[in-house]
Amino acid sequence: MEAEIRKKVETTVIEILKKADLREMTEFKLRAAVSAELGISLSTVDCKMLIRDLVESFLLTDVQETVEDEQVEFPEGARPSIRGNSITKANDALMKKKTPEVR
Q1: CA distance linking residue 8 with residue 35, whole number of Å
Q2: How far apart are the C-alpha atoms of 8 and 29, rounded to whole Å?
Q3: Based on CB atoms within 10 Å of each CB, which residue in 18, 63, 86, 102 is the most buried?
């Protein structure tokens, strides 16, 4: 794929993703929209991989920006859990007490 066309595809993908409902968007729908807008076929394996890479990059950038925008403060004595919740020592002890031991 030529550099000029690749740049147009990248720009168009980002524009579409910014406006799209990401819960409904699929790579296929995205490829079809970009293809229709630019009037080129994006059905080759290389094009599909480019679209996939652009989607992943967009999603990771979106998540990173969201994390940077949020100032997370944990209550005193709390620690973050694996799932991102904050668990206080008191709640942690209570959960251990209420949860039966796994045998």
Answers
A1: 11
A2: 17
A3: 86
Q: Are 47 and 1 in contact (CB under 8 A)?
A: yes
Domain residue ranges of the chain, discontinuous segments joined by +? 1-96
Supply the pLDDT for residue 1. Answer: 74
Collect all residues with Cβ–Cβ distance below 8 Å to 31 and sequence separation of at least 6.
42, 43, 47, 48, 51
Please tell me the number of Cα atoms within 13 Å of 58 on its side-chain side: 21
Comparing 57 with 69, the larger pLDDT belongs to: 57
d(CA 39, CA 100): 62
Strand residue runs (E) in 1-103: 78-80, 86-88
